[in-house]
Amino acid sequence: MIRSDRFLISRRPYAVDLASLSVRSDGERYDGTPTATCRLGAVWFRRQSGVLRACIGTLWDIQAPPPADAAEFLARHDDGRYGGDCDGRWDGDGYWGAERPETVAAHLSILRPMLAAYPAIPSGYDGWWTF
Fold first, then answer.
1. Long-range contact pairs involving 113-122 (C-beta distance under 8 Å, separation at least 24)
2. What is the count of structural domains for the chain?
3. Does 41 have pLDDT greater than 90?
């Protein structure tokens, strides 16, 4: 992924939480190289049918060998065809996503101010990252 300070919604950028990298060991490849499923928390804006939406979720990848940190994960994450896994979305009128009240509240505490401050990077996130 490539980092840019310039926001262009057409580039489908992500802001990431660098402290949220999780790495789960998956075993080894045929050549003995360890593999891991990696997830990194992210937020992003998308426009659908003229409606702007703020989204929260994760970017994921299977990497071999496992990355040492979020910077290495992002440098090696080069396949954006699936985009981020959206866990929650706010369009200013309605919420889509989690069902647990505490998760909905946590999502909305990020998504509401994020949408209101469009296109600013939310506090605690680093961006903008594109494929």
1. 114/43, 114/45, 114/54, 114/90, 115/45, 115/52, 115/53, 115/54, 115/90, 115/91, 118/45, 118/52, 118/54, 119/7, 119/9, 119/45, 121/15, 122/15, 122/43
2. 1
3. yes
